[in-house]
Q: What sequence folds into this?
């Protein structure tokens, strides 16, 4: 079991959406494995189903067929409460459009998963510690000057860094990034990518990043190509 | 934890939330105001009815009334432990006149026993001369009546002077000068020997008069305060005549260039002051006459004791002569309801100015419906009374119609006193009382006061039943006590027409306001729905970081509840202050826009009830919070059911 911690196994995943009268088959039997602490990029054209794959991995959606095993556990068998708990504790998300809560400051956005994780008394008991953790993470990714700012006062790169901080808050084992650089210029995108690699390595995370940009994907340990809902033949691993 | 946290964050930063709170606040406000006023109205009717007639009224169906009342009162006080006190009462109709005028007014004449009446009602609370007196009578000390009348004249003078003082102006004009000179001439300076001799004036009045003389040629700004001071001093001057008050006020009015509406009020006050002046002179004279009569009576008694018949006859003649100038005796005194048309008026500020009041004479003519006489036999009875006091019960329908006179006097005037006949059988002639009682003295009602704590809506009907049974037993032993059915009813049953009308109105109001609350609920629903739609992506993010559906719903439910709480808090505070100050606000609206909602004729009371009921307020607040929660229930469920993937894609 211990070997499975941080491992991801996907088998014959199928997912389709209804669009009016037609059914759009997005994923048609995707299977792959990700080793613990591996950084995998999934590359595909837009509409190839990569975001759908990521949502399924992140337990935001359920597949029609096929299994997803996280830490060796079949996620289909989990209760809704357990899935919520997994999303909170074990999975961190980074979105293309950052998805920060506009009412909250940088620090408050980063603390959101910690707050969702705690009861009211629990929060008051541990709030200093949690706050310190959040500040540490934000300092680490270079936002120590921006703690009290609101998202609209930040640049795109800064916003994405806040999103990364939020994804790291509960120290999840899996980090799922959906086009994390898609909305940024190439220089900033590269910074973000480096940051993502660096911090995920530090906390021994398993990372799955989807992108349409093969250049970006090169930062990963391994690249999977998604085409028409299936994985293309895998190119050899990088040295 | 995040539920509460996000709810608070959203609350502070959504303008829409403020609109929802405003809607709730308005609903709570309107409800509080309407329900409080109607509830206050019912309570006022209760207080007024109990205050006027006691808790339970025993009355006869016929105008001929019920007899042996004193015996019956003794019996119920003995046999029904809940009865604290009871007093007989006669209600009749009459025509009220003022001698030497054309004034005529249809009134109800109430025969009451004083001070006994104070034990069954709150009659004494509204009295003018005998205010706060626990045992009011028809013969209060004349000095007290005089003092109260002087105070009232001073207050009336003050009302008029205030009108004059409020007019801006520089120096006195020629006609104003003339008015002041006339005033100074009119002041009976001979009354103040100190002033005449130019000695040190010791009393306050003389001081005030000097000050007035000193400023008479100067600015009106100095003149009016001097006049006011003089007026106050005159009120305390034991021998200042009534004329003085009027002249002071008239001088002030002439001295100022008053705009027409102010002048009209001042003239009205002056006219009332003229009447009060007459009354004051009568009372002041009567006091002297009373003193003199007392002396003469003492002398006559001494002469009588000494056996000096000649002296007795001489003194008796003098007493007879003097008596003509005295007030009517206590059996010919009346207490007016404060509100009889033409006898008093209220200024815009709610102050009362009496035209006919203590010291004046009235004539009452009535048709003696008491007993036996057929319409062709009836001759109206007429009697003169001296007004000795007036009574403000705050129920305008009562105050504008009732004149109170001594019970036994009205009994006679109304042909309700006991009737005796010469003995028919010889056996009766040998009895202790040779006369035979043909008909007992009667009253129209008996007012009963029950012991404290028993005057509740639940217990009173039961007590009324006990009194009814007591009457059945009593009537069996006292034949002819009443010719028609006698019934004891609670104050609520007596006032059922008014009480049930208001209570129906209140129910209707609850109904209408409940519909308004549904509108508030829909408002909250729409606003919450819009907020949920706006927050769709945030909901997706929250679910992505592990928030449960229940948690997301909780945020919006708490949000709705908070809107209810804050809205009702604002509405309650606003409603409370509005209701508490409703009379000044109403007056202000009346003055500013000429728009009077509360007509004292229609609503019976001079003032709008301004009590806030705790229970009503609590119900309204709970309702408001509940509608906040119910209104946000559906949007919260919608929010909870949103699929995170779709929510995240939402643009």
A:
């Amino acid at each position: 079991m211990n070997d499975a911690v941080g491992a991801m196994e996907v088998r014959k995943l199928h997912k389709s959406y209804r669009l009016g009268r037609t059914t759009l088959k997005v994923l048609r039997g995707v299977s792959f494995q990700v080793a613990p602490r591996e950084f995998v990029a999934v590359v595909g054209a837009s509409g190839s189903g990569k975001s759908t794959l990521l949502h399924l991995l992140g337990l935001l959606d359920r597949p029609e067929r096929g299994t997803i095993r996280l830490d060796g556990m079949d996620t289909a068998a989990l209760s809704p409460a357990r899935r919520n708990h997994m999303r909170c504790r074990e999975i961190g998300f980074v979105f293309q459009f950052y998805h920060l809560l506009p009412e909250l400051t940088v620090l408050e956005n980063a603390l959101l998963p910690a707050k969702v994780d705690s009861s009211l008394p629990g929060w008051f008991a541990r709030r200093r510690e949690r706050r310190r953790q959040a500040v540490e993470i934000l300092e680490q990714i270079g936002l120590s000057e921006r703690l009290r700012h609101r998202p609209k006062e930040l640049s795109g790169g800064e916003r994405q860094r806040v999103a990364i901080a939020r994804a790291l808050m509960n120290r999840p084992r899996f980090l799922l990034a959906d086009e994390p650089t898609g909305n940024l210029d190439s220089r900033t995108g590269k910074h973000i990518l480096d940051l993502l690699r660096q911090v995920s390595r530090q906390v021994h995370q398993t990372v799955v990043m989807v992108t349409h940009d093969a250049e970006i994907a090169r930062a990963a340990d391994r690249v999977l190509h998604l085409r028409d809902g299936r994985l293309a033949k895998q190119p050899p691993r990088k040295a | 934890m995040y539920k509460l946290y996000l709810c608070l964050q959203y609350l502070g930063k959504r303008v829409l939330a403020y609109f929802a709170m405003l809607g709730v606040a308005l609903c709570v406000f309107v409800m509080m105001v309407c329900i409080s006023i109607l509830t206050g109205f019912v309570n006022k009717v209760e207080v007024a009815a109990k205050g006027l007639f006691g808790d339970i009224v025993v009355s006869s169906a016929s105008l001929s009334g019920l007899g042996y009342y004193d015996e019956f009162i003794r019996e119920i006080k003995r046999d029904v432990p809940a009865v604290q006190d009871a007093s007989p009462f006669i209600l009749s109709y009459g025509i009220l006149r003022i001698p030497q005028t054309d004034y005529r007014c249809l009134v109800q004449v109430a025969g009451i026993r004083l001070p006994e009446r104070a034990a069954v009602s709150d009659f004494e609370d509204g009295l003018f001369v005998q205010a706060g007196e626990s045992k009011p009578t028809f013969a209060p000390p004349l000095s007290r009546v005089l003092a109260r009348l002087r105070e009232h004249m001073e207050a009336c003078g003050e009302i008029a002077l205030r009108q004059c003082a409020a007019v801006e102006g520089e120096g006195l004009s020629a006609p104003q000068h003339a008015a002041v000179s006339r005033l100074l001439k009119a002041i009976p300076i001979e009354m103040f020997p100190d002033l005449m001799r130019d000695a040190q004036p010791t009393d306050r009045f003389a001081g005030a008069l000097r000050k007035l003389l000193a400023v008479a040629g100067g600015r009106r700004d100095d003149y009016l305060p001097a006049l006011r001071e003089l007026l106050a001093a005159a009120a305390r001057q034991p021998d200042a005549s009534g004329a003085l008050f009027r002249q002071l006020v008239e001088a002030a009015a002439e001295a100022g260039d008053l705009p027409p509406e102010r002048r009209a009020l001042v003239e009205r006050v002056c006219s009332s002051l003229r009447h009060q002046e007459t009354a004051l002179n009568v009372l002041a004279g009567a006091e002297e006459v009373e003193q003199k009569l007392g002396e003469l009576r003492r002398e006559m008694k001494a002469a009588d004791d000494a056996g000096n018949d000649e002296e007795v006859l001489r003194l008796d003649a003098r007493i007879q002569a003097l008596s003509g100038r005295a007030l009517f005796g206590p059996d010919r005194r009346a207490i007016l309801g404060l509100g009889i048309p033409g006898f008093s008026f209220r200024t815009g500020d709610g102050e009362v100015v009496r035209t006919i009041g203590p010291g004046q004479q009235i004539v009452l003519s009535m048709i003696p419906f008491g007993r036996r006489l057929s319409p062709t036999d009836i001759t109206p009875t007429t009697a003169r009374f001296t007004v000795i006091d007036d009574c403000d019960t705050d129920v305008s329908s009562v105050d504008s119609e009732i004149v109170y006179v001594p019970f036994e006097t009205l009994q006679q005037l109304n042909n309700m006193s006991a009737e005796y006949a010469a003995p028919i059988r010889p056996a009766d002639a040998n009895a202790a009382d040779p006369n035979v009682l043909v008909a007992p003295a009667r009253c129209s009602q008996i007012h009963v006061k029950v012991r404290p704590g028993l005057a509740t809506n639940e217990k009173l009907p039961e007590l009324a039943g006990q009194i009814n049974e007591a009457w059945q037993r009593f009537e069996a032993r006292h034949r002819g006590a009443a010719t028609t059915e006698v019934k004891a009813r609670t104050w609520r049953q007596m006032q059922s027409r008014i009480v049930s009308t208001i209570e129906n109105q209140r129910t209707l109001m609850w109904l209408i306001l409940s519909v308004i609350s549904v509108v508030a609920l829909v408002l909250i629903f729409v606003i919450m729905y819009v907020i949920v739609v706006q927050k769709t992506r945030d909901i997706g993010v929250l679910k992505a970081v592990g928030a449960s559906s229940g948690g997301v719903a909780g945020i919006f439910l708490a949000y709705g509840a908070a809107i209810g709480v804050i809205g009702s808090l604002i509405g309650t505070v606003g409603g409370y202050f509005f209701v508490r100050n409703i009379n000044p606000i109403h007056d202000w609206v009346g003055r500013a826009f000429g728009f009077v909602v509360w007509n004292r004729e229609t609503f019976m009371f001079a003032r709008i009830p301004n009590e806030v009921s705790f229970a009503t307020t609590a119900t309204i607040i709970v309702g408001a919070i509940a509608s906040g929660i119910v209104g946000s229930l559906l949007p919260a469920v919608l929010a909870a059911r949103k699929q995170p993937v779709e929510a995240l894609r939402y643009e």
User: Anything to note?
Assistant: The first helix of chain A runs from residue 50 to 57. Chain A has a mean pLDDT of 87. Chain A touches chain B through 30 residues (CB under 8 Å). Residues 104 and 169 of chain A are 16 Å apart (CA to CA).
